[in-house]
Specification:
The structure is a single chain. The protein is an alpha/beta fold. It is built from 15 helices and 14 strands. Strand 3, helix 3 and strand 4 form a beta-alpha-beta unit.
Length: 449
């Protein structure tokens, strides 16, 4: 295959005292091509970034690929030659692939650039590296780090010790899943109906049950930092039971697909009047055949009580998205026109609203950062394609723009007249800033400003 080489002399893996020269990188690339039967076309190397932070030769590499119209393989020593952090690596990786080339690392043990980024650039500062090294040494000995998983406690010697009453619940969960054929939601309802509580005395949820079913700690295997130590502590369930549960999880797991569902306008401010928990936006896609045999597809969007969805408590309280949003907007319009929202003496309230909006944006940014890391891991493992990674980066960019104030909320006085002309982000910012909460029953929605 026609191959291009790229390297950076200031890459993170260029340790002091062991820095390679441009000639050495070029020689390694030539040898890589020779051993793998690639055609050595050209090598691009950067010594340091320009004043604006960009890398001149990297830019030339991308332009060379675009202008040539050929399919190239771009070989790099490791992921740190594309960026000093995983986000920069992901953006560079996608940019090179969009130009028409494939990227690979010359390291035969880890040729995938995204996997390399997660491994090589997972921790960057010296203090964190020392902490990580200390934790790794404990992990090698099978010593628990942090809070023990449900069913165990940290023993005096650092090893995990089973807690019998919690262990019984773990065995029950696996039995219901593998032998009784219960789905995760039914298990949640079963435990909550029997008033079996979590370690903190809370109610069970879909997430906690799913985490238990996939955790190999329950067969005595300790995992941390890529280490996997079997028989490190007492097992609660058998290996056969664990494998049976994992097989069922894989069978029931939906095929990974690119989710492009639109966000919900009232997300985060609408609450169930019956239990006080938040209502969440839910998207359901259905397909069926009509009388003529034609396959029909439709998408349904609505708000549903989160307690019902995640913990099998409360009732099946739902509102269609369009109906609830129309009801809320009508009340907001009325409040604006009657000056109940933004009336006299609300200067301090406006300042508080702005502060609330800022906090909301920061939380959205934190969520976007978490989604990016999840997408990075999924793409690196092959569980998702690069579209998921690109979508996560796009979402991260939008969240940063909103957090920096690029998307601002209109003031109250202009709200009523401009509402129909506002974009989604402006409408959402306005509601987050000026509406405290929306309480919803089956019959009505009440806006609290």
């Amino acid at each position: 295959m026609r191959a291009l080489g790229y390297f950076r002399l200031d890459a993170e893996t260029q340790a002091e005292g062991a820095r390679k020269t441009a000639e050495e990188f070029e020689a390694e690339f030539a040898e890589y091509c020779y051993l793998n039967l690639h055609q050595d076309i050209e090598t691009f190397g950067d010594a340091a970034p320009s004043d604006d932070g960009s890398y001149e030769q990297y830019g030339r590499l991308v332009e060379y690929i675009k202008e040539s119209g050929s399919n190239f393989l771009v070989a790099i020593p490791d992921a740190s030659h594309l960026g000093s952090d995983v986000e920069t690596v992901a953006r560079s990786f996608l940019e090179v692939e969009a130009a028409g080339a494939k990227v690979t690392c010359q390291d035969l043990d880890m040729p995938d650039p995204l996997q390399s980024a997660l491994t090589v650039l997972g921790v960057s500062d010296d203090r964190s590296s020392k902490i990580r090294e200390s934790m790794q040494s404990r992990a090698i000995m099978g010593k628990s780090l942090g809070r023990a998983a449900y069913g165990y406690r940290n023993g005096d010697d650092g090893a995990l010790v089973a807690v019998e009453d919690e262990a019984e619940v773990v065995r029950l969960i696996f039995e219901l899943y593998t032998k009784e054929g219960m789905g995760i939601r039914r298990i949640v309802q079963h435990l909550n109906d029997r008033d079996i509580r979590t370690r903190r005395g809370g109610r069970w949820s879909v997430v906690t049950i799913h985490e238990i079913l996939k955790n190999p700690v329950y067969i005595g295997t300790y995992t941390r930092f890529g280490l996997r130590l079997p028989r490190a502590h007492e097992a609660i369930i058998s290996a056969d039971t664990y494998r049976a549960a994992r097989d069922i999880v894989r069978e029931r797991r939906p095929r990974e697909r690119m989710s492009r569902a639109e966000p919900y306008l009232l997300s985060g401010i609408v609450f169930c009047e019956y239990c006080g928990n938040k209502m969440m936006g839910v998207t359901r896609r259905q397909q069926w055949k009509n009388k003529d045999g034609e396959r029909v597809r439709n998408t349904y969007r609505y708000y549903q009580c989160q307690s019902r969805n995640n913990q099998s408590v409360c009732g099946y309280h739902t509102w269609r998205e369009s109906e609830l949003e129309e009801a809320v907007v009508a009340q907001v319009r009325s409040a604006i026109e009657s000056e109940a929202l933004g009336g006299n003496g609300r200067g301090s309230a406006e300042g508080k609203a702005s502060e609330t909006l800022s906090e909301m944006h920061k939380e959205e940014l934190r969520n976007a950062e978490r989604r990016f890391i999840q997408a990075m891991k999924k793409t690196a493992s092959g569980a998702a394609d690069t579209d998921l990674l690109q979508s996560a980066l796009d979402g991260l960019d939008r969240a940063r723009a909103r957090a920096s104030g690029a998307a601002s909320s209109p003031d109250v006085s202009a709200g009523a007249a401009a509402w129909d002309y506002l974009g989604f982000d402006q409408k959402r910012d306005f509601l987050l800033a000026h509406v405290s909460r929306v309480e919803v029953s089956d019959q009505a929605a009440r806006v609290i400003v």
